[in-house]
Every structure is written in structure tokens, then in C-alpha cells.
Amino acid sequence: MGVLQLRSIMDLLDRIKIHYTVSEHEPVYTSKQAAKIRGVEQKTGVKALVLRTKEGGFVMGLVAADRRMDLNKLAKIAETKSLELASPKEVLETTGCEVGAVHPFGNLHGLPTYMDVSVLESDLVNFNAGLHTVSIQMKAKDLVKAVGPVIDKFSRR
Fold it and tell me: For the segment 68-112, what is each residue's pLDDT rounded down to a tens digit?
């Protein structure tokens, strides 16, 4: 399924004429592993989490990989009573990606997407592209253009 996600991302970026680079590497499962294998600072990574709302829907939260999401703050921003991490099965069913390989394009799955301001602190950002073995690097401002997230502050160190 991850290959389909990669193709969908590339099609979107090509269609709106955004420059990006794709790299293949050994499988990574954590933000620290990903930064090391990519040869970049961890803060340039984009962590994409699928979250279940109290009402039973799903949203996507994006934060810089060296940060943690404050789910209470994000719940207020998303106008829901509470948020919790989706189960691995829910993540797969919602995005077609395994936990740890989820890409930040919630819009490709009809998910309301929220981006923490920490993502915009790096000019270039890196993220898994639906597979544990493939990463994409692009400008943070272009990621905003491609995803159309609500941007707010909901991270902590």
C-alpha cells in the first residue's frame, strides 16, 4: 500500500509544480533513526500522527520531529472534546500506511490536518513517504501549499 501513497504524493506535488527529492534508505521506525539515516537534524523531520476524535472521526497532526504534540491544545484547536492516538489498525485503514511511515498529506485521505508552527522553523523538511524505506525532502512552505493545513501552536519539547 505504501507504494500507492508515494505515487499519490508525487502526483500531487508534480501537478502543483513543487520541487522535492525522494531518497531510498534502510527501514526507519523512529524520528531519531530517520534523522540519522537521512543525515539531517531531527528538527527538520515532520512527524505525522493520526488521531481519533472523541466523536469517532480522525484528524492528522503534524509537528517537528524533535517535539511532542500537546493533544489537549490540539483538541481545542480542532474543536473536539479530546484526541487520542489512533490504533495501528486505524492508521492503516485511514491512510494505507503503517505507523512510523505515515506521510504528512492528510488531505490525500480527507483528514483535517493541523500543523504546528515548529514545522515552519526549518526551511527544508523531511518525512517518510508512506514507506519505512522512502523519504521526501521539500521546502516547509511548499508542504503548507500542498497540504493546506490549519497552522497553530500545539507542541512542546
Answer: 999 999 999 999 999 999 999 999 999 999 999 999 999 999 999
pTM: 0.96
In angstroms, rounded to a whole number, what is the distance separating the alpha carbons of residues 68 and 157? 6
Classified as helix, coil or strand, 135 is strand
Q: What's the half-sphere exposure (Cβ side, CA atoms, 13 Å) at 115? A: 24
Question: What are the distances in angstroms from CA 104 to CA 45, 55, 81, 126?
Answer: 11, 22, 23, 10
Domain boundary assignment for the chain: 2-156
| Protein fold of 2-156 | YbaK protein (3.90.960)
Please provide the size of the chain in residues. 157
Measured over the CA atoms of residue 139, residue 148, residue 31 and residue 22, the dihedral's sign is: negative
The Cα-based distances of 61 to 22, 24, 27, 129, 134 in angstroms read: 22, 25, 23, 16, 20
Quote the CA–CA distance of 59 and 110 in Å, as a whole number: 9
All three cell numbers of 48, joined, read 505525522
Give, as one character, the DSSP assignment of residue 86: P
pLDDT digits (tens, 9 = 90+) for 46-73: 999 999 999 999 999 999 999 999 999 9
Task: Judge whether 102 and 131 are in contact, CB under 8 Å.
Answer: no
